[in-house]
Amino acid sequence: MRYMYLISAIEDGKPPPQQLMDVIGKQAEQELASGRMLSQGGLLPTLMGAARVTLKQGKLSVLDGPFTESKEVLGGFAIFDFATREEALASAVDFMALHAKYGEGWEGVCEMRPMFDETGGCAAIEGVATVVA
Questions:
Q1: CA-CA distances (angstroms) from residue 43 to 56, 59, 77, 88, 119?
Q2: Where is the YCII-related domain (predicted)?
Q3: How many CA atoms lie within 13 A of 92 on its CB side?
Q4: Strand pairing partners for 42?
């Protein structure tokens, strides 16, 4: 089952601590080599070309970054392939533990989400009904 981690944090204009980035880079190399991590990436600050295209009540609007009304913004993602939800959750906890240890006061969220599979459906997850698109 594929899972996406969506990492969000308060955007304060400061880059993450270098030690944290080094540790995350090493972990990403290991995860990619193992085949568990399929893709990953960090996002530039919202003031560097970000935009939101919104559809509300049938009308489209475009808002250029930075997004001052947002408390947290998406800062990165990773896609993994895990055998179980428990394995995926343990990995997300380990990833956030790196932030606690090396992030010097960093606070944020790692949202773990199962992904639709290639057939357009979502494999059954314990306690959750199967979804078909």
A1: 26, 27, 8, 22, 29
A2: 1-92
A3: 24
A4: 76
Distances (CA, A) of 80 to 12, 28, 37, 52: 28, 11, 4, 26
Tens-level pLDDT at each residue, the chain (133 residues): 999 999 999 888 788 889 999 999 999 999 999 999 999 999 998 989 999 999 999 999 999 988 877 788 999 999 999 999 999 999 999 999 999 999 988 899 999 999 997 755 555 455 454 444 4
User: Is the peptide bond between 66 and the residue preceding it cis, with omega within 30 degrees of 0?
Assistant: yes
Radius of gyration of the chain (CA): 17
- Residue 9 is encoded by which pair of tokens? 């944090």
Say how far apart CA 2 and CA 40 lie, in whole Å.
13
Phi, psi for 22 (deg, rounded to 5): -65, -45
CATH fold, domain 2-132, is Alpha-Beta Plaits (3.30.70)
